[in-house]
Amino acid sequence: MALGDLLLPGQPIATTRDAAPGEGTYVREGYVISSLIGRRSSGEERQAQVQGTQLPLALPQTGSTVIGRVTRVNPRQANISILVVDGLPCGGVQGTAVGAYSNRAAGEGIDGSDFQGIVRAQDVRSTEKDSVVLVDCFRPGDIVRATVISLGDARSYYLSTAHNDLGVVHATTCGPTRRFRGARWPIL
């Protein structure tokens, strides 16, 4: 392992035959394991140490602006996987929490640890709320900019796109020949 690689808690560093445990590590089943998010540091010879690092991570709060990927749409709500909170990768998203150190797509945490949000039909726009058809507003895969209006329930934050600078920022298409064009909100 190179000296500059980012280590995560639980990640093996070396075998106990190759290195002794040092600061920021522990031993399990013959391996020296990292107990911190950080980088391997140079210590005594044949000693594995991890120097902790502070990653700029954010948690969604009421009033935060978030960017997320639409994962599911039904007539009452659109489910959003939150990727970015106020310009920072959010702490629950494994794909973005380590930023450039990950080769997985953002929001595709293998353990389902990413933050979830819900845009309800009444929170899509500020006028004519009764006539919103969610499947015409969002598609799975769309990238959406929204604001957190409530902490919601135990599983999801409640989000709103009812402002001029919020909504779909990157739309998916039905096929390779169709292109989306920007439109004014009354046309949508």
Instruction: Give me the strand/helix succession.
Output: EEEEEEEEEEHEHEEE
Look at the structure and give the CATH class of the largest domain: Mainly Beta
Q: State the low-pLDDT regions, or none.
A: 92-112
The beta-strand count equals: 14
CATH architecture of the largest domain: Beta Barrel
Overall morphology: elongated
GO molecular function: RNA binding
Domain Exosome complex component N-terminal: 8-40
Main location: nucleus
Protein name: Exosome complex component csl4
Task: Write a structural description.
29% of the residues are buried. This protein has helices spanning 94-97, 134-137; strands at 6-7, 12-15, 20-21, 25-28, 31-34, 38-42, 47-52, 65-73, 77-85, 88-89, 115-120, 143-150, 156-160, 167-170. It has two domains: 6-52, OB fold (Dihydrolipoamide Acetyltransferase, E2P); 65-170, OB fold (Dihydrolipoamide Acetyltransferase, E2P) (Beta Barrel), CATH 2.40.50. The chain is mainly beta and 188 residues long. The radius of gyration is 21 Å and the shape is elongated. It contains two helices and 14 strands. The protein is 4% helix and 37% strand. Strands 8-9-11-13-12 form a five-stranded mixed β-barrel. A four-stranded mixed beta sheet has the order 1-6-7-3, with no helix packed on it. Strands 2-5-4 form a three-stranded antiparallel beta sheet, with no helix packed on it. Pfam families: ECR1_N (PF14382), EXOSC1 (PF10447). Residues 8-40 form the Exosome complex component N-terminal domain. Residues 59-151 form the Exosome complex component CSL4 C-terminal domain. InterPro entries: Csl4 (IPR039771), EXOSC1_C (IPR019495), Exosome_cplx_N_dom (IPR025721), NA-bd_OB-fold (IPR012340). It comes from Malassezia restricta (strain ATCC 96810 / NBRC 103918 / CBS 7877).
